[in-house]
User: Fold these one by one.
Assistant:
Number 1:
Amino acid sequence: MAEITNEFAWSVSRHRSFHECLRLYYLAHYAFWGGWEWGASELAKKCYRFTKMKNLDMWAGEIVHAVIEWALHRLWERKPITGEAMREHAISRLRQGWKESRERQWEQDPKRRLNLFEHYYGIEVPPERTDAIKRRVLRCLENFWTSEVFAFIRSVDRAAWKAIEKVGTFHLNDVRIWVKIDFALAHRETLYIYDWKSGQEDADDLRQLVCYALYAMEQWAVPHDRIRIVPVYLQEGIAREQTVRPEQVIEVKEEILQSIARMRARLVDPARNLARPEDFPMTTETWRCRRCFFQEVCYGGRYEGA
Ligand code: SF4
């Protein structure tokens, strides 16, 4: 079997971690490498574990995505699906994930078993917080079920569905760019790319979707003026359908290339994607450390500072 190597590749989440904290970026994209192997160093094992960690908000979003994916696959397979079944599926996942994390089942299987940040670092989770998470998940799913977007999806022939939670790549110059498209379909010579959002609107949401449009332009040979990007804010039940303007395509391409250049400039050997920790200093904005999954690596345990 060919040896897998830590290839340099760009993604929206990589870009975000680079801007969050350079040390976090180093730990999550370099120090973690090989941490899934039995003989790995303790540092690599810990970093790998933390790349799989989720906090309560991320977990809620993940369940919403997983249940919508499940429902869409059932529709694709012409199996029955109801709003009540989606709700039950979500509640079952919430129960299962909470148990996995509480029982530290991730110690045996860090890739597949949930490791909640709050449990790991002993952060108290009052019942009001877990109730709010459950309410948010169920509200998102209810809003999805009753949405015009879902009605539209059901009205379109499944032969025109292009992607359900599709992980794909395209290249910008020589760099692989990773994307994850929640859902896409083609209808009347227009490609619709959907992104399910279980959190609040963010200025970066559109940039992320334009990046996905770049993928669609290459992968499915669709011109930008035939693409609609649709972030769907499920808590509020709002879909913001937009066209993709040519200047957005140019801007986002340029931003990605600049982001790649900044990341590579910090590498000791860009051709081999080799990094040294001393070139990735810890952030001085220590309020970030309080919510960081890697705080045990930097501080030997929970960050107790201000
Ligand atoms: S704990 Fe703080 S310094 Fe360390 S990786 Fe996280 S954010 Fe960066």
Number 2:
Amino acid sequence: MDRTSLEKIQREKLLVAIRRANKVPFLRQKLREAKLESITGPSDIAKLPFTFKKDIIECFPFGALAVPITKVARIHTSSGSTNKPITTFYTKNDLRVWSELMARGLAGIGAKKGDIFQNTTSQGLFTGGLGLISGAERLGLVVVPLGSANPDKQLETMRDFGVTVFHAIPSFGLRLAEALESKENAMRATLKIRLALCGAEPWTKEMRRKIEGTLEIDAFNNYGFAEAGGPGIGVECIFKNGLHVWEDHFIMEVVDPKTGEQLEAEEEGELVITPLDREAMPLLRYRTGDITRIIDGKCECGRTHRMMEWMRGRIDDMIKIRGVGLYPSNIERLIASHAESNGQFQIVLSGIDDMLVRLEVNNAAWRDPTAVANLKTTLAHEIKRQTLLRTDVEIVASGTLPRSDGKARHIVDLRRIS
Ligand SMILES: [Zn+2]
């Protein structure tokens, strides 16, 4: 679809989305306060008010609904770390659109009819469960809804059913890689896996290289968040140039997180998403808290949907150490660039502001004391150079750090609160 047609769709859908937003009390209030004159299309979007996560939390459980509860076909929640979960609602049509988008994403990474698809995430309230399954079914894949199970069980199921495509949270992708590494070499030959869709937590390209290298697959980044319906907002295509955001369903902006001013393409800031089709739970200019940039350029695949860069982290993930802001993903990137690392790490904060980076190395490196000592020195130096923070580095054997079944927890904050 050419950009002119895409923008025409955006314009028509945005006006409908504003009408729907007017049915939600807190959004109606915001629209009233904004004293809008005329909104003619996406170019006027900066006139619309922002929606924040706290707006949704405050009206838990049903206050964000734009339709009577009898029109709601399903409820999901986010797996977020706030006290109350973020609730998200779908009408029948919302579920249909969602499965279309998930099918589009899976097709974009190269999955096709005849592929056997295993979902390795929980199939309950988490949007990455049923959302992926319905998309895979829509595309005509054979679905193996295993859900959460340990890495060994996942690999055995992949082997038994000849699974070719799977979905995983990236940190679980690493655990699968680790599990395969611990097996005899012949295990990989019994597997037919070739593609993985990973998302739901920030990860890095270095982490992808580990997953792809060990599992011998292609892994793709998939983006979404529960508030806007879950995964299926943006996904990489086979060229891996960035995540195509489905602009016929979402308006994407990147803004300065402090001032809220719109930024130009290539400028890094906070991603703001306006979903255009959501009936049950419309949102206007939702502040995602995710840091990224819009990529200025075309993709070889020919899609006209613009791309965004991999998330650099979340605003809320940023930790302050001695007055310096640090994103755990920066540390992760440095660690993963060393072949000795298996990708598992922890940042331990203690005392007033002492930082210790603890990481695991693979078995070969662990048996080599010189390699361990070198890695320790090099990493401390690299972290200092890149983040301006002095840190201790501790290297431990593979399997030492706790593994969580959910999203990775990299920060252990034992600091005294003064
Ligand atoms: Zn592309």
